[in-house]
Amino acid sequence: MQRRSRGLNTGLILLLSQIFHVGINNIPPVTLATLALNIWLFLSPLKPLRNSCLSVETCYQQNDWQRLLLSPLHHADDWHLYFNMASMLWKGINLERRLGSRWFAYIITTFSLLTGVVYLFLEFAIAEFMDEPGFRRNCAVGFSGVLFALKVLNNHYCPGGFVNVLGFPVPNKFACWAELVAIHLISAGTSFAGHLAGILVGLMYTHGPLKKIMETCAGFFPSNVGNPRQQYYFNNSGYSGSQDYHQSGRPDYRPYGRPEEGPRSYDAYTAGLSEEEQLERALRASLGDQGNSRTSPPPYGFRLSPEGEMRRKRLHRFDSQ
């Protein structure tokens, strides 16, 4: 398999234009890192495509298992890169906001490896079932299998609505299956088994045991990688940050790059006073008691109700003691 040359990398230029149109500061860190890594390996591949693509023959029979790592991160040409990374851009923004960067990075890593494993199993099963050894030599490359898995996740979290597939409205929950067939029909050079492997991995996460297994494995990491409740927020000015949920359910926002602080002390704001003491001090300040004569009239426009007048007299006796 050789990289197809098209002269000017128009697809790469369009991809960079789309990234800068969205705004680098508005792209979550793991999504941005994934885009950057794929672009970098497209410009400076670690190995030629024939040595990084994934097949049963090269992996299982020749024990070249490093292809499981290389194949998702290499692309056949600039348009292959563009369509995959443009899809990753929007899926990554949506899912990383919902799941948090740590868990999303965990998902990307797991899906990249597991999609390749499922792809090898599918190609091997088809070759055995159809008695066609050629399927063992089918060599796939690209990030699209991972994207199909992410699409299953995205549709799982946003089940409503319809998408247009070849001019037909398709419910979101069936969109990945419709796109699997549509892409295979309009582009014969794509890997049907690779895309199907992505869908199966996504379903293993949303409806199978994969999520539980990942959560169990994440428990062994001290960095709390298994906390999927961290969410990210973005604004039009490009400022971004994270939102962590405490046990009380109250969100606490923290910008990127700022060290995480310990439990905040509010003594600087309350001077260590109780609520009743704060109320007394606030009322005393409003009445002009601090630094003023006790008999001076209240400020202009300030009137006390009878209850407030009694409260003022009680405070006055309290201060005289």
Notes on the protein architecture:
With 321 residues, the chain is mainly alpha-helical. Helix content is 54%, strand content 7%. It contains 13 helices and five strands. It has helices at 10-22, 29-43, 56-61, 67-70, 78-99, 101-130, 144-157, 172-186, 192-206, 210-218, 267-270, 275-286, 306-320, and strands spanning 162-165, 168-171, 231-234, 240-245, 251-255. The strands form two sheets. It has a three-stranded antiparallel β-sheet with strand order 3-4-5. A hairpin with a 5-residue loop joins strand 3 (231-234) and strand 4 (240-245). The longest helix is centred in the middle third of the chain and has 30 residues, at 101-130. It is globular, with a radius of gyration of 30 Å. The chain starts with 9 loop residues before the first helix and ends with a helix.
Main traits of this protein?
321 residues, mainly alpha, 3-stranded antiparallel beta sheet, two-stranded antiparallel sheet, 13 helices, 54% helix
User: How many beta-strand elements?
Assistant: 5
Considering DSSP H and I runs of 4 or more, what fraction of the residues is helical? 40-55%
What order do the SSEs take from the amino end to the carboxyl end, as H and E? Answer: HHHHHHHEEHHHEEEHHH
Discrete helix count? 13
Radius of gyration: 30 Å
Catalogue the unreliable spans.
Answer: 222-226, 229-275, 289-305
What distance separates the N and C termini? 93 Å
User: Which structural class do you get from the secondary structure elements?
Assistant: mainly alpha
Main-sheet strand order equals 3-4-5
Strand content: 5-15%
Shape descriptor reads globular
